[in-house]
Amino acid sequence: NAGVMQNPRHLVRRRGQEARLRCSPMKGHSHVYWYRQLPEEGLKFMVYLQKENIIDESGMPKERFSAEFPKEGPSILRIQQVVRGDSAAYFCASSPSGQGSTEAFFGQGTRLTVV
Amino acid sequence: GESVGLHLPTLSVQEGDNSIINCAYSNSASDYFIWYKQESGKGPQFIIDIRSNMDKRQGQRVTVLLNKTVKHLSLQIAATQPGDSAVYFCAESNSGGYQKVTFGIGTKLQVIP
Fold first, then answer.
1. String of b and e for B75-111 (b: at least 16 CB within 10 Å)?
2. How far is A74 from chain B (nearest CA, A)?
3. Residue B85 Cα, gap to closest chain A Cα (Å)
4. What is the mean pLDDT of each run of 10 residues along chain B (113 residues)?
């Protein structure tokens, strides 16, 4: 049973370009979460999705950021017109459905560098 | 606002000794408190959690203690090993049907061989 798969592991973008980060949850998991981690800091919640639905996007910046989790395929975190401040590690986590589950499984992350 | 934070940014421990990592939280409404381990270049790894109606929970070589009176959480690692070297995050969550986790800053544990 493969874990949470994120790709690419490293992504370099020039200012103004678009970044697309992909996350395939663990088999059988229907809940996906995206977090951002700046150097020497903890992870900050961005968005929570279920298949085809955004449940909680309270941590997403109002502009340039979007996320989706289509019926088929991985979850995508899209950052348009990237700026240097977007440079960070972006982690995806997944968990099975149901309440009271705290053991979310994290991927290895995508490290975005904006130059 | 509500937050989860740590007392010590770095902790150095001799191999074989016990480690204690402390955490203060402010959101008394949280249902769960969780410890994660993050090794360099990797994602956080779940270690152990504790519900808010408990004060102690043990796992393999780890014990989590929760003191709701002073809003304090600790992680105890017995017989610390070099492989325990990592950054440890305490976090809190509500069991409202999904896991939106609020992380603290982290404590770096360095195990001295």
1. bbbeebeeebbbbbbbbbbbbeebbbbbbbbbbbbeb
2. 18
3. 16
4. 54 96 87 91 91 94 95 96 95 70 88 94
- Whether A55 and chain B come into contact, CB under 8 Å, resolves to yes
Instruction: For chain A, 115 residues long, give each residue's pLDDT as a single digit of tens.
Output: 579 999 999 999 999 999 999 999 998 888 899 999 987 788 999 999 998 899 999 999 999 999 999 999 999 999 999 999 999 999 999 988 655 556 678 999 999 999 9
| Spatial contact of A93 and A44, defined as CB atoms under 8 Å apart | no
Residues of B in contact with A103 (CB under 8 A): 46, 49
Q: Across the interface, do B43 and A109 touch by the CB < 8 Å criterion?
A: yes
pLDDT at A114: 97
B96 touches chain A (CB under 8 A): yes
Strand order in the sheet with A19-24: A5-7, A19-24, A75-79, A65-68
What torsion, rounded to 10 degrees, do the Cα atoms A86, A87, A89, A91 define? 20
Distance from CA of A50 to the nearest CA of B (A): 10
Residue B73 pairs with which residues in a beta bridge? B23, B66
CB A12 within 8 A of CB A111: no
The dihedrals phi and psi of B83, each to the nearest 5 degrees, come to -70, -10
